[in-house]
Specification:
The complex is a heterodimer of chains A (273) and B (341). Chain A is α/β, with parallel strands linked by helices. Chain A contains 6 helices and 10 strands, in the order βββαβββαααβαβββα. The relative contact order of chain A is 0.20. The chains are: A alpha/beta (273), B alpha+beta (341).
């Protein structure tokens, strides 16, 4: 965590950035700066490129042109990737082999250690605190498979928090989560944001996190269509943002062959909705 | 004469002890990574190494080790390219490995190909004193690597994309795991056999998964199970005159079926008990809610209701709402007023 005020150096800076998979561009020519401590929603319909934009910041999609700087370094050259927290969109985190909440969250802490260092007492404390921060302290040694879907999502948040990230990137953290868990998550994010951590949340619904996020970026057909206060984002959203485009109202620029993020070389546990 | 009076049995038991311990310790990561058949594939590749060793009068254990490690590296590099041709490339490598092995062994003088069964399915008489030394080194190296890198290997096996995003050396760790599998395959080639080793990596892990709560517990339990079935299978093989690899694997599968049945039975009993409680509470005069008069107690992601000193959790099913018992009262009132609801 940083103690610097929200007006510090940029956490993320994109200049004419083109991002995609292989050599297929999905997000094109994006200029964007996110200041340290900001809490930003990245909105857009399915296939708009919002997830690709986030994956570009994580080094999971290719920067095909322009520049993408994260925490002051080009994304490919960022040595301490552990400074960036990531909450992927996964509906379930129970793998083939049982694992406890403590074990899953412990992985997040590994990112901050070298290749061979083991978790030390300070690291174990960080894991415990991260689990407590998402309200699951009493489930620390339970198998993750025994938790509800919403609780499992909070475990993924704790895994990211365990590394004390300066920038936290989340993909659809509220999708498929019940209201009580959404509220709990909003509380967690508000506290993280208050400590100066930069938040970038890819989402298709802003209501659950409206109290936390202040700025919105709307991605449409691979371009930034809106960048400004969250409250006014809705007016700039395409009519088809939450639904499919009605046949008669499809924007003329829409191409059926538009590459979407689902065509990239993606791996297990990786879904786009 | 006792089983330990034979030198060859002492060596076979030592080898089975090592492979029984090591194979599951590596196999659990393969299961987590959903790559259970990697050991099988590398066994195929190792056969070519064995054949080269036989033909060139070198120790087949060493040549098998070289072939399996090279095969492991090729597989991981092909996988890292991440293209659809990877699947086909693996098949070519695997079948090329076993075909190359069979053909090269066929070229060996004095009908060496008759040893094929022993390499593929294991035999108790084949472990040489030099083999035991090599196996001991392999076993120590593999177990030490798992102890040192286990958490990272778990991280990469569990969620490769996350591991990449936070900067863990994913390709390097995958190469390490594949190399560990290659070493384990070679360790197994005397007692278990190249075609059956995959079972000893996977089945003990499958049994442990049914019983353990954590990854660490799963690894420990799988090693104990592997050790027991490996040593007892080798012993049975001595008395029954059966191939050791097949005997070990059948024992492991029998244990798997037994534990699966026991766990299923236990779950069915728990469900019946749950249903009985549901029936009791179906007679409950009201649905718990804000104004029902019972104290609401927040519990994780839902609310329990204090009902005469025990907690009711509303549980919605397609049959309507019923109440699960969520333990004794956690706040204030001592749970002295009985459990009838």
């Amino acid at each position: 965590m940083t103690d610097s005020p929200p007006t510090g150096p940029a956490a993320v800076r994109l200049r004419h950035a083109t991002i995609g998979y292989g050599d297929v561009a999905v997000v094109r020519d994006v200029d964007l700066t996110v200041g340290t401590g900001e809490a930003v929603a990245v909105l857009g319909s399915n296939g708009s490129g919002k997830t690709t934009l986030a994956r570009g910041l994580l080094g999971l999609a290719n920067v095909l042109g322009g520049e993408v700087d994260v925490l002051g370094a080009p994304v490919g050259g960022l040595r301490e990737r552990g400074r960036v927290g990531y909450v992927p969109q996964r509906h379930s985190i129970s793998g083939a082999v049982p694992a406890t909440v403590r074990e899953v969250v412990g992985v997040g802490r590994l990112a901050r250690l070298g290749l061979l260092r083991r978790l030390r007492p300070a690291d174990r404390t960080a894991v415990t605190e991260a689990v407590a921060a998402v309200g699951l302290a009493d489930r620390l040694d339970d198998p993750v498979a025994s938790l509800s879907g919403g609780q499992q999502r909070r475990v993924l948040v704790a895994r990211a928090l365990a590394a004390d990230p300066e920038l936290l990137i989340m993909d659809e953290p509220t999708a498929g989560v019940d209201a009580a868990n959404q509220e709990a998550l909003a509380g967690v994010l508000a506290r993280i944001s208050a400590t100066g951590t930069t938040l970038i949340v890819v989402t298709h619904e802003t209501a659950p996190l409206a109290g936390v996020l202040s700025r919105a970026i709307v991605v449409d057909h691979g371009l930034v269509a809106y960048d400004g206060p969250l409250e006014q984002a809705a007016a700039h959203e395409e009519p088809g943002l939450h639904h499919h485009h009605p046949p008669g109202r499809r924007p003329s620029g829409y191409r059926q062959d538009q590459p979407t993020v689902t065509t990239g070389p993606r791996r297990r546990g990786d879904e786009e909705h | 004469m006792g089983i330990l009076d034979y030198d060859f049995m002492q060596r076979a038991l030592l080898a089975s002890l090592m492979v029984g311990l090591v194979a599951p310790a590596v196999g659990v990561f393969l299961v987590q990574r959903r790559l259970s058949l990697l050991g099988d594939g590398l066994g195929h590749v190792a056969l070519t190494g064995v054949a080269v060793g036989v033909l060139t009068a070198n120790s087949p254990v060493w040549t098998a080790l070289v072939a399996a490690v090279l095969g492991a590296a090729v597989i991981e590099l092909v996988r890292a390219r991440g293209r659809t041709s990877g699947d086909v490339a693996l098949a070519v490598l695997f079948y090329g490995g076993i075909a190359g092995g069979v053909v090269l062994l066929g070229l060996a003088p004095r009908g060496q190909a008759t040893n094929l069964d022993a390499y593929l399915f294991g035999a108790i008489t084949t472990t040489s004193p030099q083999d035991v030394g090599v196996f001991a080194v392999i076993a120590v190296v593999v177990l030490a690597t798992v102890a040192l890198l286990g958490q990272r290997l778990y991280a990469v096996s569990d969620d490769e994309e996350y591991a990449r995003a936070v900067g863990l050396p994913v390709l390097g760790l995958n190469l390490v795991l594949a190399t560990l599998v290659a070493c384990t395959v070679v360790l197994s080639m005397r007692v278990v056999g190249l075609l059956l080793i995959s079972a000893l990596m996977i089945v003990p892990s499958a049994i442990a998964q049914l019983l353990a709560r954590s990854f660490r517990e799963t690894v420990g339990l799988a090693c104990v199970i592997g050790l027991v079935v490996s040593v007892s299978g080798t012993t049975t093989s001595f008395y029954a005159g059966t191939p050791s690899g097949g005997t070990i694997v059948l024992l492991a599968i029998a244990l798997f079926l037994l534990v699966s049945a026991a766990v299923a039975l236990q779950e069915a009993t728990a469900r019946r008990r749950h249903r009985r409680r549901v029936d009791v509470h179906d007679a409950h005069p009201h649905d718990h809610g804000a104004d029902c008069g019972h104290v609401a107690v927040p519990h994780d992601d839902h609310v329990d209701y204090d009902h005469d000193g025990h907690l009711h959790a509303p549980h919605r099913t397609d049959r309507g709402v019923h109440y699960d018992e969520h333990g004794e009262h956690a706040v204030g009132v001592p749970p002295s007023s009985g459990r009838t609801g």
